[in-house]
Give the backbone structure.
Amino acid sequence: MADEIVRQYVDSASTTGNVTMNVWRGDAGGGGFVEYELEAKEGEVVLDVIHRMQATQAPDLACRWNCKAGKCGSCSAEINGKPALMCMTRMETLPTGEPITVAPLKAFPIIRDLVTDVSYNYEVAKRIPSFNPRPKTTDELKAGGYRMAQIDVERSQEFRKCIECFLCQDVCHVIRDHEENKTTFAGPRFFARSAELEMHPLDVTDRRAILREEQGLGMCNITKCCTEVCPEHIKITDNAIIPLKERVVDASYDPVAWLGRKILRRTKASAAEAQATSLVSGPPAVQPDAAVRGIPTAVGE
């Protein structure tokens, strides 16, 4: 069925010339770029060309995709060296008259061709303490739900748009150029997740110590490359990472903020305390096993 749809598209699209594609082929043992030349079709995205390639020249080309609508985050790749979704990169926006390169995400282990092992990210997610809401007040119990100000809700709403394409993780040089940092650096996607939880008006867990001591928030030097590649246009640096850095500094070094919290008795549960008394179900926040692929325990391991 899928092959039939691809062939119908190839036959029905209007021809506008030829396009040369340099696609990385190989596996964990090695590989290289292979050149393919196809007819250029009007209105195509890169994923369309990859599908035509599979239908006509390279039926064994491995490529991960699902929705073809920019919402599943599956078809992440590096197009002309820039991390992007293949389904959202229109061919007419790329330079004409020169080959277009399509490569797998550099920051993650290669499985085959354009498919990479992104399980590192799922292991990092386990280290983030889950949502832990405060108990309902008497009024809220009578009303049957929590009460929140809309402005407080909107503060963390932006981060829920994330489709987990992991382009931000791939482009971040702290991970991309330093494999050894994967054990101590959570990465932009998970800083956004922590920001979503930290800024939630009901959450009572304090993740600031974990961000500083275990997840390497201080290693981010705010180049904003993660924001530039985000297909959902989430302002990861400005709205997540910088505010988290400010919160970590306030918690650790600001004597005025410390005194204010003591006087007003404004405290949050530590991550360990919150995990022990969490009101929600879910996996515990644990460190990943050293054997998990993509999470080395030492340089070169």
Q: What stands out?
A: Strands lie at 15-27, 30-41, 76-79, 82-85, 100-103, 110-112, 115-116, 205-206, 269-270. Residues 236-253 form the longest helix (18 residues). The mean pLDDT is 84.
